[in-house]
Design goal:
By secondary structure, the protein is mostly beta strands. The chain folds into four domains: 30 residues, no CATH class; 47 residues, TSP-1 type 1 repeat (Single Sheet); 47 residues, Thrombospondin type-1 (TSP1) repeat (TSP-1 type 1 repeat, Single Sheet), CATH 2.20.100.10; 40 residues, no CATH class. It is 0% helix and 28% strand. It has no helices and 14 strands. The protein is rod-shaped. Pfam families: TSP1_spondin, TSP_1. It comes from Ciona intestinalis (Transparent sea squirt). InterPro entries: Compl_asym_regulator, TSP1_rpt, TSP1_rpt_sf, TSP1_spondin_dom. Keywords: Disulfide bond, Glycoprotein, Repeat, Signal.
């Protein structure tokens, strides 16, 4: 072996065999010794990647990460692990839905009449348009309501005078009168009719 401790052997053979009572060869025909006892280099090895974790956001572009750890550390001059223990990627990169939103209502405009029941209106505008599948605005851009529902004052009005009646006497200073009727009764605080219904 080139490292980690091996053996190497050498051998010898009998050159002259013993005879006529001579001594046999002492020792072994082979000789073994340990060699290359230095440790073998072991390179670093990563474990397998874990699964990616959950994305940090549901839309709009987030991150998710996976990790790994050192399974075998380098020693005896082996190569260190290359790369990073964490790996990050972009996820859920589709834009997030944007829902429609209204501005606040404007002030009510002036009532179109001062009495008798009219209408007034107010308006609003869209502040944020719906995008990317967001929910659209519900409702209307304007609304109306009744206003100034109190009755309007109506002043009393007379009809025209009727013709004069016949004179009470044919001579000697008599009298005659004429009459008139109310054409429109006063209401809601209107002025009453001035004058009398009869004129003599």
């Amino acid at each position: 072996v080139s490292c980690g401790g091996g053996n190497q052997t050498r051998s010898r053979s009998v050159a002259i065999s013993a005879f006529c009572g001579g001594n046999s060869c002492a020792g072994d025909p082979t000789d073994t010794r340990v060699c290359n006892t230095q440790c073998c280099p072991v390179n670093c090895q990563w474990s397998s990647w874990t699964e990616f974790d959950s994305c940090s956001v549901s839309c709009g572009g987030g991150n998710q990460t996976r990790s790994r750890s050192v399974a075998i550390f380098a020693f005896c001059g082996g190569n260190s692990c290359a790369g990073d223990p964490r790996d990050t990627r972009v996820c859920n990169s589709l834009p997030c839905p944007i829902h429609c939103a209204w501005e606040s209502w404007a002030q009510w405009n002036e009532c179109n009449v001062t009495c008798g029941g009219g209408m007034q209106e107010r308006k609003r505008q869209v502040a944020v348009e719906a995008m990317h599948g967001g929910i659209g605005c519900s409702g209307f851009t304007s609304e109306s309501r009744s206003c100034n529902e109190i009755c309007c004052p109506v002043a009393c009005e007379w009809e025209g005078w009727a013709s004069w009646a016949e004179c009470s006497k044919s001579c000697g200073a008599g009298s005659q009168d004429r009459r008139r009727n109310v054409l429109v009764e006063e209401s809601c605080g209107g002025e009453t009719c001035a004058g009398n219904a009869t004129q003599v």
